[in-house]
Specification:
CATH superfamily of the domain at 38-328: Alkaline Phosphatase, subunit A
Number of helices: 33
Largest sheet: 9 strands, mixed
Strand content: 5-15%
Length: 841
C-alpha cells in the first residue's frame, strides 16, 4: 500500500515537472508576445547560404546588422529549402507547401495556381495591409506570387547590370521599403522584402567590394546586410520594431564550385539548400539557437499560429513553436528536376537531424554530422538506413503529389512565357528549357552526377551569349549538339548567335534542325519566320508565322510577328489588323502600339500614328531605358516622314535624360547636318564619337559636317578612319577621292591616291555610277592623265543625259572641257584648316 502511494506521488511529481517544463518552453518563446501582432516583416535574401553569415559561423564579419538582430532572436541552425530555385522556393516559403504540392518546379514556364493559398492572402483576410517589394524578374507578378498583396512592387526604376544580369539593387528596394513603412506605419501590415544582390553575378558596391576582394559573393551578402540594417533602423525610428514579428531567411544557397556546380539549381547538396532562418518575436530580447531540422515551409504555419489563425491541414510546414515540434523527428523534403531537361533523372531528397538521402539513379546517403561536405556516400555501408529514408521520401511524395490540386504535369501551373519574359529570365542567367515532372524512382535514366559537365556547358554558353562572346559560345553549343543531338535549346542558342551576327541563313539552318526534334514548338516557327524575313523570303516567312499562330492562337507576340511579315510585304492594311488584334488581347503592350503606328504611318495616317507612338511612350513612363529606346525609334520614323523638327525634339529629350546616349547624339548630328546647322551637327557628332569612337557612320557624317564648314583637313581625317572601319563603302571612297582630287590646298591634294580610291569605287559599282565616274575623271586630270580623264568624263556625261539629269550633266560637261584643254579641276577653296597637314599621307 505504501509502495503504491509512493509510486503515485512520484507519478504526480513527474507529471507536474513535465507540465512545468512544457509551460517553461512555451513561456520562453511567447512570454513577450502581445495579444495582437500588428506588424509582420518577412525578409528574403536570395541565394544566401547560411554559412556565409557571421552569426552562422563565417570566418569574417559579413553581417553585423543581422548578427545584432540575432542576439535578440531565435536562430534556427538547420534550415532546409525544398528546391534551389528562386520562384518555386518562394512559392514554398509563402504557401507552406513543397513543390510536388504547389506544382512549381522551375523558374521557366510555371505560374503559381490560384488554388494555392499564400501567406499574403491569409493575412489580408485577417485585416492586414499587405505589400511586397521584389528585386528580380523571376518573381514578377505574372508568375502568380502576387496573390493576396495589396501592392506588389515588381517594376524596376533602375535596372542594374552585373555581367549582363538584370536586377534591382538593394538600395532601390530600400527606397521603396522605407516609403512603404512611412505610408503604412499606422496600419496592421505584412511587408515582404526580397533582396536579389547575392545572386550571380556578384558585383557589390563599395566599400563592400573592396572589403571582400577574396569573395565577391560574401561582399554581396555584406551589402545586403547593410540594406537590412537600414530597414531595422527605420522600424525602430517609427516605434514599430519591438511590436513586430520579423523573419530573415533565404530561398536557397549557392554551390560556389562544390561538387562541380558554380551557382545553384542543379544539385541538392547542403550548400544549395541550407539557408538561414531567424525569428524575432515581438518584445523579445533573449537569444536562442535551435538545431533541430526545420524548413522554410514552416514560416507560414508559425506566423499563423502566433496570430491564432487556424492552419490549413494541407500545409506541409509545421508550427516551429507548437507542442509537437520540439521532439518530432522531421523529414525535410528537397528536389531538383533540372537534369530532366537533358533526359536525366530527378534528384529527390529528405534531410533529417543527422542524415540526408537523395533518390536518383545512383542513390546517395550522407552523415551530415561526420561528413558535412557530403563527400562520402554511405548507401552501400548503411542500406537499412537508406531504405528507411527512401520509404519516408515515398510517403512524402505519395501524400503531396496525390493531394495536389494541380497534380503532376497539371496545366493550371504551366505558363508559356512570351519572348520578352523569356529574354528577361535568360538575362538573370537562367537557361530556357522545360523540366519533366518525374517523381518515379526510376533508376534506368542517366544520373545527374554524370550530366553535370553538360549542365555546366549549357550555363556557360548562355552566359557567353549574354556577354556577346559569340565565338566562344558557338564552340560550346556545337559541341553540345554533337553530344546530345536532341537537346533543342542548343540549336536555339546557335540560332540566337547567328541572328546577332546577322547570319540569318545560319539561323534558319539551326532552327530547321530544332524543328525536326520538336515540330510543335511555336517559337521555333516564329524564329524561322523572323530569319526568313531578314533574308527577304517574305512568302516563306509568312508561312512559318502562320504556323506559329496556328499552334498558339491568340498570343500577342505571334500576332505581332504576323503583322511584321505583312508590313515587310507592304500589306499595311493586314499588318494593322494583326496589331489591333494583339492590342485587344494585351492593350498595355507598348511595343504593339509602336508597330501599329509604323503601319498607320505607311497608310498615310500620320496623325493616328503619332497617337499610337504617344501611347507607347505613356506605357513606358516608368521604364526610362526602354522609353528612350522607343523615343529614338519614333524619332527616326518621324524624320523619315518629313517631321524633322518633331524628331529633333524627341532626340533632345533623350540626351537631356541620358547625356551619353550614342544613338540620340548621332541622330541629332545627322538631323542638324541635314538642316545645315553645322556647328550643332559637329557638337553632337563629336560627343557621339567620344562614346563610340569606332562607329563608321558617325565618322562619315562628321566628315561631311567638317567639309561643309570648310575644315577639309578634319574631314579627310574622319573619312580615312571611316574607311579603316568599312573599306568598301562606296560613298566614303568617293567623298575622300573628290577632296584629294580637287582641293586647292596642295597639302591636302593627292591625285594619285584619289585615282586609287575612285577606281575602287567604280569597281564596286561596275563603272555604272556617273557621279563616281565624274570623281575618277577629276582624279585622272589631277594626276595629269588627261586622255583617261576625257574618256571617263564623257562616259559620265552620256549616262547623265540618258537618265535625264541634264543640269548635273551640264556641270560635268564644263569639267570635261577643262580636261580637253589639259587643265585639272579645282573646286574647293583654300581650307580653313590648311595648317593641319595630317590628312595628307
Amino acid at each position: 500500500m505504501k509502495s503504491s502511494f509512493t509510486r503515485f506521488c512520484v507519478f504526480v511529481l513527474l507529471s507536474m515537472l513535465c507540465i512545468g517544463v512544457i509551460a517553461a518552453w512555451f513561456s520562453r518563446r511567447f512570454s513577450h508576445l502581445p495579444k495582437e501582432i500588428r506588424h509582420i516583416v518577412l525578409i528574403s535574401i536570395d541565394t544566401c547560404r547560411a554559412d556565409y553569415l557571421s552569426c552562422y559561423g563565417y570566418r569574417r564579419q559579413t553581417t553585423p546588422n543581422i548578427d545584432k538582430f540575432a542576439e535578440e532572436s531565435i536562430v534556427f541552425t538547420n534550415v532546409i529549402s525544398p528546391i534551389p530555385m528562386t520562384l518555386p522556393s518562394h512559392c514554398s516559403m509563402l504557401t507552406g507547401t513543397i513543390p510536388p504540392y504547389h506544382g512549381i518546379h522551375d523558374n521557366f514556364d510555371y505560374r503559381l495556381d490560384e488554388s494555392n493559398v499564400t501567406l499574403a492572402e491569409i493575412l489580408k483576410d485577417n485585416g492586414f495591409t499587405t505589400g511586397a517589394i521584389i528585386s528580380a524578374f523571376v518573381l514578377d507578378s505574372q508568375f502568380g506570387l502576387d496573390q493576396g498583396f495589396d501592392s506588389y512592387n515588381d517594376k524596376f526604376e533602375e535596372e542594374h547590370m552585373a555581367l549582363n544580369i538584370s536586377e534591382r539593387k538593394g538600395a532601390e528596394v530600400n527606397r521603396f521599403a522605407l516609403e512603404w513603412l512611412d505610408q503604412n506605419k499606422d496600419e496592421k501590415f505584412f511587408m515582404f522584402l526580397h533582396y536579389f544582390d547575392p545572386h550571380f553575378g556578384y558585383e557589390a558596391p563599395e566599400p563592400f567590394a573592396s572589403e571582400f576582394t577574396d569573395s565577391p559573393y560574401a561582399a554581396e551578402i555584406a551589402y545586403t546586410d547593410d540594406c537590412i540594417g537600414q530597414v531595422i533602423r527605420k522600424l525602430k525610428d517609427l516605434g514599430l520594431y519591438d511590436s513586430s514579428l520579423i523573419i530573415i531567411t533565404s530561398d536557397h544557397g549557392e554551390m560556389l564550385g562544390e561538387h562541380g556546380e558554380n551557382t545553384h539549381m542543379y544539385f541538392i547538396y547542403q550548400s544549395a539548400i541550407k539557408v538561414p532562418l531567424i525569428f524575432k518575436l515581438p518584445g523579445r530580447r533573449k537569444p536562442e539557437r535551435i538545431d533541430s531540422p526545420v524548413g522554410i515551409i514552416d514560416i507560414v504555419p508559425t506566423i499563423c499560429s502566433a496570430l491564432g489563425i487556424a492552419i490549413d491541414p494541407d500545409v506541409q510546414g509545421k508550427d516551429l513553436f507548437g507542442k509537437s515540434s520540439a521532439d518530432e523527428d522531421r523529414y525535410i523534403y528537397s528536389e531538383s528536376l533540372y537534369a530532366t531537361r537533358y533526359g536525366g533523372n530527378s534528384l529527390l531528397g529528405v534531410v533529417t537531424e543527422r542524415f540526408k538521402y537523395i533518390q536518383t539513379t545512383r542513390p546517395e546517403l550522407y552523415d551530415l554530422v561526420e561528413d558535412p561536405r557530403e563527400m562520402k556516400n554511405l548507401v552501400t555501408n548503411q542500406p537499412q538506413r537508406a531504405r528507411i529514408l527512401q520509404d519516408a521520401l515515398k510517403q512524402i511524395l505519395e501524400q503531396s503529389v496525390r493531394m495536389s490540386p494541380i497534380g503532376t504535369g497539371g496545366a493550371e501551373s504551366k505558363l508559356e512565357l512570351d519572348e520578352r519574359s523569356r529574354k528577361r529570365l535568360e538575362s538573370l542567367g537562367y537557361v530556357a528549357g522545360s523540366v519533366t515532372e518525374d517523381f518515379d524512382f526510376d533508376q534506368s535514366k542517366e544520373d545527374p552526377k554524370d550530366l553535370i559537365g553538360f549542365y555546366t556547358q549549357d550555363g556557360r554558353a548562355n552566359t557567353l551569349i549574354l556577354q556577346k562572346r559569340y565565338t566562344e559560345a558557338k564552340t560550346i553549343c556545337e559541341k553540345m549538339v554533337l553530344e546530345r543531338p536532341q537537346y533543342v535549346e542548343a540549336y536555339l542558342m546557335l540560332a540566337k548567335i547567328a541572328t546577332e551576327q546577322s547570319d540569318f541563313a545560319g539561323s534558319v539552318s539551326h532552327l530547321s534542325r530544332a524543328l525536326e526534334f520538336d515540330p510543335e514548338r511555336y517559337e521555333l516557327h516564329s524564329g524561322l519566320g523572323a530569319a526568313l524575313t531578314h533574308l527577304g523570303k517574305l512568302e516563306e516567312a509568312l508561312q512559318y508565322f502562320e504556323e506559329s499562330a496556328r499552334l498558339r492562337p491568340g498570343r500577342p507576340e505571334v500576332l505581332i510577328n504576323l503583322g511584321w511579315a505583312f508590313y515587310e510585304q507592304g500589306r499595311f492594311d493586314e499588318a494593322v489588323a494583326q496589331y489591333i488584334k494583339a492590342l485587344e488581347i494585351e492593350p498595355e503592350r507598348a511595343e504593339t502600339h509602336f508597330h501599329l503606328g509604323k503601319a498607320l504611318a505607311r497608310q498615310g495616317k500620320l496623325e493616328e500614328a503619332v497617337g499610337c507612338w504617344n501611347e507607347a511612350l505613356r506605357l513606358t513612363a516608368n521604364q526610362p531605358v526602354e522609353q528612350n529606346s522607343l523615343r529614338n525609334d519614333i524619332a527616326e520614323r518621324l524624320a523619315a516622314h518629313g517631321k524633322l523638327e518633331q524628331a529633333i525634339g524627341l532626340w533632345n529629350e533623350i540626351v537631356q535624360l541620358d547625356a551619353e546616349n550614342v544613338a540620340a547624339h548621332k541622330s541629332l548630328g545627322a538631323a542638324f547636318l541635314q538642316q545645315a546647322e553645322l556647328e550643332r551637327a559637329i557638337a553632337h557628332l563629336g560627343k557621339a564619337l567620344q562614346l563610340a569612337p569606332d562607329n563608321y557612320e558617325i565618322h562619315h557624317n562628321i566628315a561631311m559636317a567638317f567639309s561643309r564648314s570648310g575644315k577639309h583637313g578634319k574631314a579627310v581625317t574622319h573619312l580615312r578612319k571611316a574607311l579603316e572601319l568599312k573599306p568598301d563603302q562606296v560613298g566614303t571612297l568617293n567623298d575622300l577621292a573628290w577632296i584629294l582630287a580637287t582641293h586647292a590646298d596642295e597639302n591636302l591634294r593627292n591625285p594619285g591616291e584619289a585615282v586609287e580610291l575612285s577606281e575602287r569605287a567604280c569597281e564596286l559599282t561596275g563603272y555604272k555610277d556617273p557621279y563616281i565616274l565624274d570623281t575618277l575623271s577629276a582624279a585622272y586630270a589631277g594626276a595629269g592623265r588627261f586622255s583617261e580623264a576625257v574618256q571617263t568624263s564623257q562616259k559620265a556625261v552620256d549616262m547623265l543625259i540618258s537618265s535625264e539629269q541634264k543640269e548635273v550633266a551640264s556641270q560635268v560637261a564644263k569639267r570635261l572641257e577643262l580636261f580637253k584643254a589639259g587643265q585639272p579641276y579645282r573646286e574647293l577653296p583654300q581650307s580653313k584648316d590648311s595648317a593641319d597637314n595630317a590628312a595628307k599621307p
